[in-house]
Amino acid sequence: LRKLVLLKSLARRPKVLVMDYLYEGLDVFSRQDLNDLLKEIAASLQCTLIIVDNLNHLPDLPFETLYVADFKVHPAREQFPPLENALSWKTPKAATQGEPVIQCHSVRVTYGEKVVIRDFSWEVCKGERWLLSGENGSGKSTILSLLFADHPQAYRNEIYLWGRKRGSGESIWDIKNNISFLSAEMFTYASNSFKNNQKVLPFLLTHFQGPFEMEKYDVQQLQAKALNMLAFFGLQNLSGVLFRNLSSGQKQLLLIIRTMLFKRDLLLLDEPFQFLDAHHKALAKQFIHTHLHASDTLIVISHHNDAEFPGIDNCKHM
């Protein structure tokens, strides 16, 4: 989708092209293809490129770099503190391999005659941490949506969660209330729904997934925990700010906080570090690991190698 939106913009043959975090969600090959395309555009269209990014993937062009801090633009020649702090933490050791949490047998997903996934088999046991990798369109997010009961074709496939076959009489909330799920679609939904007009603290506290689930929680304790989590990222002063007034990176941090605030035993994280600069990405990794227990099962989708997320021992490539 991101590629199509970019191509639509290029078809207008612009003289100035402004791109905000254009590399988010693109696999390594697509990022290189995009850079090659941008170099051609800059030359053939004599197009001025303005890119907001954290200097991770820029094309080989003579960019003038500006640094923004505290709502002020600084020339690149000035000295700034390093973006990434030297953070270290002890990754909680996973428990001895337990019983299977997820079992997929020859999963097949089709849209009309188009086969998206075929013969996909996978077993994930309690306490394991997995990286799910693959190119754009390879089906990674589809697999997570099958597990989270968001995809209707889950019911025609042989998928087991905690030993129970999908479609054997459980309700959708029986599934969702046992899984913590963070996806790119949640970012889009939160920014284009009534949640966009919520203040930060109510936004964090309304992430219940099933009917009456909030009855399980002590709201005052939950609020105190949410404020502590905000303080971890230095965001405690934002508790009364409207969600819509936050930056993309701040919104993503709130989604991570909300996911861990209501953490279940199975965590599905789809590109959890999009829009984050190097420093806050390191903080987010530390934050997630701090709240992981040895018996928790974790699946992360990323277009970067497993070194980006320490503590992951298993990789499934699609």
What does this structure look like?
It contains nine helices and 13 strands. With 318 residues, the protein is an alpha/beta fold. A five-stranded parallel sheet has the order 10-11-12-7-13, sandwiched between helices. Helix 2 (28-44) links the parallel strand 1 and strand 2 (48-52). Helix 7 (219-232) packs across helix 8. The longest helix has 17 residues, at 28-44. The protein starts with a helix and ends with a strand.
Task: Give me the secondary-structure topology.
Layout: H1 2-10, E1 16-20, H2 28-44, E2 48-52, E3 66-69, E4 72-75, E5 100-111, E6 114-125, E7 129-133, H3 140-147, E8 158-161, E9 164-165, H4 172-176, E10 179-182, H5 184-191, H6 200-205, H7 219-232, H8 248-261, E11 266-270, H9 278-290, E12 297-301, E13 314-317
Parallel strand pairs: 1-2, 7-12, 7-13, 10-11, 11-12
Antiparallel strand pairs: 3-4, 5-6, 5-8, 8-9
Strand element count = 13
Q: Count every helix, treating DSSP H or I runs of 4 or more residues as helices.
A: 9
List the strand order in the largest sheet.
10-11-12-7-13
Low-confidence stretches: 82-91
Largest sheet: 5 strands, parallel
- What overall geometry do the principal axes of the alpha carbons give? globular
Beta-strand portion reads 15-25%
Over the alpha carbons, how many angstroms does the gyration radius reach? 21 Å
Helix and strand run: HEHEEEEEEHEEHEHHHHEHEE
Helix/strand-derived class? alpha/beta
> On the 0-100 scale, what is the average pLDDT?
83
Query: Helix coverage percent of residues?
Result: 25-40%
Distance between the termini: 19 Å
